[in-house]
Fold GPR180/TMEM145 transmembrane domain-containing protein.
Amino acid sequence: MFNVGGRGGHCWSKVSRKGLLPLVKWQQLSAEGIFEDKGQLWMLTQSGDLFCSRPNSSSLHSLPLPCNSPVICLAAAPFTVWLLTANSRVFIRQGLSDTCLDGFTWRELSLAQIEGVKLRHISCGCDAVWACDDQGSVYMAMGSPHAMADSTFSPVWIHADEKPAGKKIFFTKVYVGPQIYMVWAIDNKRNVYVREAIFHDFMLGVGWMLVSGIEATELSLSGSAVWALSPGGSVYRRHGITQNNFIGDYWKKIPGSLAAITSSVSDGLWALDKNNGLLKHSLLTVRLCEKGIKIVGDCLPATDDDWEVLRCDSSSRYALLFFCAIFTLQVASGMHIVGSWNTKDFFKFLVKFGVQKTNPHNQKESHGYIFGNITSRSNVTNPAAFAVLDRGYFLEYYGNRSVANKEKACARMFNKVSTMAFDEKCFDQGEDFLRKVPCPKGQLCVDEDIPWNVIKHHQFTFIIEDLKQPRFWYISMVACYRDSSCQWHHLDEEMDIDYDIWLVNGSPNISGYNPFLYQFSVDRQDTAELYLVFFLCYVVLVPLQLYAATRQKHPVTRLFTASLLLEFLALCFILIHVLKFAFDGVGVGGMAVAGDILDILSRTTFMLLLLLLAKGWAVTRMELTYKPLVFAIWFLYGVVHILLYVWNMTEVDIVDDIDEYQTWPGWLIIVFRTLIMVWFLYELRNTMMYEHNTQKLNFFLHFGASALVWFIYLPIIALIALQVSALWRFKLLLGITYSADCLAYCVMTHLLWPARSEQYFLLAEEADLGDELDEFNEAPHVINNYTRLSEPPDLSKIIA
């Protein structure tokens, strides 16, 4: 598997803040409230001063502390920060937002329910708060930490009874991440634990599981990982964490020697060095691009002292050059769709994409993702609708698009969809089917209620999970909008909308995905491997046939070699398109079409060769009978086949789950092929009736049997495909047709090999009297009595 994520390097750079002396020492940091470039970084100095700052800003905002007691724990979440003081009081900052970094005031949280408990550590998630007291007991309060700041009622604290195994071992810190199933803890022996069996309807979990591998003094939980700081100051990341694999897979060390660490929801890292100075983490990645190798990163340092240079051996270099050569080809349309739409067209169908079945043991990495940007160059009063629907909802929606009255069309199209689609006002418990577009420039779409689920540098993300089966999803845009009374209306306003959308199977946040699965719709997954296998077969077969053609110059050999070369070129063009598509989601559409046309020409040329041989050309005669008829039918078949391909590409509605052989032109080509097969058998029978050479008859028997299999497989497989799901039908047809063609070429190469074909083909340039005598001796009107010839002659009769 080729890793298209590139090679990465890590760098910790010092961060300076305006208005502060360079010698300021920091005590605590909290970046858990940051998502990408939104939110606040909270910092507490050793002298007890509290500051906040935007993640990419050098300006600081100072906030007064709520009391004189020292702050022992600083806990942040999106748009909220909690302070825990040494005398076990908890304060929440009210009024925090993206436009108001400082908030308004501090509110003390009532802890009357757990009076007498001395909390020593707290952590805020998105839907819960966890805390640990000085006796090692752990508590959980359900609800949004942001909402608790303004709530009139105090949260209910639930005691988690379970404690770590062993005498005199107790918890000292507990941490919760943006995902509810991410709850981790540390004990007084620096062991790391994870909370088991946390679900949306049971957020307390059932127990603690020891996570071996490292010792830790601090943890920080991002949206997809756990970051740990060891007693020696080393930093580790826990990989592979999902809802069904809450413990993750392994720890991986990253460079650095630090005193404290904190991570954002989107995996941004800040830290304190050994001198308590502020550091920010940068990741530099070396990637392949169209012009060679490109270096990208969060920031590029002025010097390379902190970077390690990675070198590759000669074989790796050749592999890189091969793939770079593929990337330099021209761009065409594909699953990464880019374009524009004007709302006066009312409806725009974008693409059909098959999402794979979600792996229950690795859910996050096996989800389907649809993400991108949709913007407009003009201001709009009402938004249009961007819809991502499965087949059950799409058919009614799609069928009503042609209603003449567009006001009624909108109402009918969303009649069924509205019963299930999420809307903040109309149906807040619905499924994630719709987005209001265009999205505000430089901001997330207004429907994105969970910003950390949105892929970085994009405005919207649909995450598709199906634990039962793979499924097709249909993506479209329509000039309809929903008003405040939840009724759908026609958007009678013209605007241009630009879109840039990705559709993938697997998480875009990991770099080790399989490129032969990631970019492909589920019905096209693994086809790249099929093309590669047959390409290797032809790489062996084509040179052999070219060698045979140099040894045996004859029209039969030339015609077969031309057919084989056409097939090989077709496969090369299609393979280049598929490989490029695997890495950029676009491919080279022109080369794919050219490959398909060459494939059709190859098969029709091969069919002509079979007909000519069935008529005995170059076997029993060198002149053909009914030559105009043969070539007319062959030409007509080729034209009809190409017209079928064009018709299938342009006229068949992509919404219909049918292939080219389930349409009337498809059945026409199958009937045509069957009639040619019957004609082939008729001509072969006539040729064999007048042939008495044993070697030639043996050739005709083997040739006829193999050619009959090649003729008959397509009608049979077309009938079988009627019973196969559209999710697997393309791969079935592709695998069988390419296998049958490759086998037919191998058999024909064997039959036409010079050492064999000289026995039964009329291939000699000059007359060979010995061959003619052999044919004469084997003729039925010549009687050879080899027994009498072997007896000595009777000389007495001759003398007499």
The longest strand covers residues 278-289.
